[in-house]
């Protein structure tokens, strides 16, 4: 418990408006499908007018997004974007790299980890396979949100409001293939059902992109781990596509458990 001096300091440095905004963000962080303004007002024990003003400012600053119908509010991905420049992102990379290296050694394939960043995906970690040949995405590359396995998995494991916000922020990268919005929604539904994405690369012939989401506590993707699988056609017997898929799934599950234990 706080002593009298600590309570005095807490009262002296109170910032009511900031507290209201943080209360809203923390509340929405726990909600998978968002909340109405009335629900937010009731749960926080505030009056409707102050919640209206605060929500309008959070929407204007893009920390919160409205549903298409305009009656529900949920977190945007802006906090994720800010976190990219914060030590927790470095911690994610530090945790992921040993597991990615172990996967690449077993699967004899490369892999890369990408996160959402300002409308597309940013590659924050990459490991080469151990063989003579390989397919690698350069560290720090920005890859398309619409036509890559990483992008589609990131879109699939978001709320509808967050997905709309990501698509609104999206700008085409060089060579990006367009896709109809309805077709994209169907693809996202298929990925959610399967739990991962397996598709022929839309950038390079002969590559099969395998992608799994790294899910946060709310069940939304905070990163995507991709293996651009190359099939050997000589006499060397390399791990099969099915075997590599299972190994990539195990890698993501191990990383998720590690993060839960560390939190």
TrEMBL record:
Keywords: DNA-binding, Transcription, Transcription regulation. GO terms for molecular function: DNA binding; DNA-binding transcription factor activity. Pfam families: HTH_IclR, IclR_C. This is Transcriptional regulator, IclR family. GO terms for biological process: negative regulation of DNA-templated transcription. It comes from Paraburkholderia phenazinium. Residues 78-257 form the IclR-ED domain. Residues 15-77 form the HTH iclR-type domain. The lineage of its organism: Bacteria, Pseudomonadati, Pseudomonadota, Betaproteobacteria, Burkholderiales. It comes from the Bacteria. SMART domains: HTH_ICLR. The keyword Transcription applies.
